[in-house]
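WARN no homologs supplied; continuing
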Amino acid sequence: MKDKRGTLLFYMPRFHCPLPLAAGAQFDLPAGAARHVQVLRLQPGDAITLFNGAAAHGQWQAQIVEMGRSHVQVRLVAHEALECEHRRPVHLLAGITANERMDWLVEKATELGAASLTPLLAERSVLKLKGERGEKKRDHWQAVAVAACEQCGRNQVPVIHPAVTLAQWLADHPQTSSESRAVLSLAPGSQPLLHAISAEGAGPVVLLSGPEGGLSPQEEAAALAAGFAPITLGPRVLRAETAPLAALALLDQG
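OK structure emitted
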């Protein structure tokens, strides 16, 4: 692969390493990252990139020092203050979709820069998650987000929050003066996204989207009463897993 100047670039494998990282540190990788290194058949002396997923901590160039049957030891070489986040943090509140579509939504929302994602137990959600099953799904989606960060070059891992109803979320999150809120809507009079929310504005954005079939009239009314502006993405009706991704891409322009 080459950059815009024609310089030859080499892909360096990236791994999430949720540990304190400091110059010169030498340590064993966590089990998941170690297995990934072994699967890729990397060897002592090979270079890799590590990031711990925390805000504004960048990434580290590291070198593999030792390979064992069940461990991989690395040494941190140099820090890179590199981030590729949205200008405005975008927090996605998304109706839970059926089957693997939610996995796809979490993966692509991570690639497109969502700062967090809250799965919404909407009235029309096909998948209903409670208790232990809900916690397992949340852990799974968090792992999907981590893998997407490794692939796309992000160093800040979006938080996947516990699934909640819209009423619960609204009760726990009163609107702040710096926050912009928008709900994807088919209602007449909805504004184009970038008319309602500026990609270059200040403060976080909360983006609400429904599941298959959309939000119920009661849910949409509650959102509007809580400060969500109704927005549209154009004349076509997008799928539940497509619409919030298109909105994230628009908010990343400029």
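Confidence is low (pLDDT under 50) at residues 1-9.
OK
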